[in-house]
Specification:
By secondary structure, the protein is mainly beta. Helix content is about 5%, strand content about 45%. It has one helix and twelve strands. Bound molecules: thymidine-5'-diphosphate (TYD).
């Protein structure tokens, strides 16, 4: 499994503007059970800092931009999300941190399951121990 997995969404555009459709088990590689979005963010207050045991997600910056640090316990990479026609897959056991939000950033996230705090690993030490197993 590669650390960075982008999904390009086909853009349906005409002289009225653009449209992107996200469909579970089609261009999103799971059945979508939850959608949430982050907005009114502050550039100097990062978020995330966790991994999931079973949840798979796709993050799309539908407005503005932000950086995401992805870490699978072996390597780390920082990528920029700045396009509404590109999604970043956040797979199981990928520690992620969102940084440097633009003032207008709206980060949409599609998730494979409903919210469950028990699925979160919020301690980086615990994450490293789980990855080594
Ligand atoms: P948190 O995981 O801290 O957000 P981030 O990963 O962006 O830093 O979530 C903030 C709060 O929102 C926390 O109390 C859990 C709650 N929450 C829900 O109730 N439902 C959800 O779908 C999500 C993602 C979070």
């Amino acid at each position: 499994m590669s650390l960075i997995h982008w999904i390009d969404f086909p853009k349906i555009g005409d002289d009225r503007g653009n449209l992107v459709a996200l469909e579970g088990n089609k261009n999103i590689p799971f059945s979508i059970k939850r959608v949430y979005y982050l907005f009114d963010l502050q550039s100097d207050i990062p978020r995330g800092f966790h991994a999931h045991k079973e949840l798979v997600q796709v993050a799309v910056c539908v407005k503005g931009r932000c950086d995401i640090l992805m870490d699978d316990g072996k390597s780390k990479e920082i990528v920029t999300l700045d396009s509404p026609d590109k999604g970043l897959l956040i797979d199981v056991m990928q520690w992620h941190e969102m940084h440097n939000f633009s003032d207008d950033c709206v980060l949409l996230v599609l998730a494979s399951d409903v919210y469950d705090e028990a699925d979160y690993i919020r301690s980086y030490e615990q994450f490293q121990n789980e990855v080594k197993k």
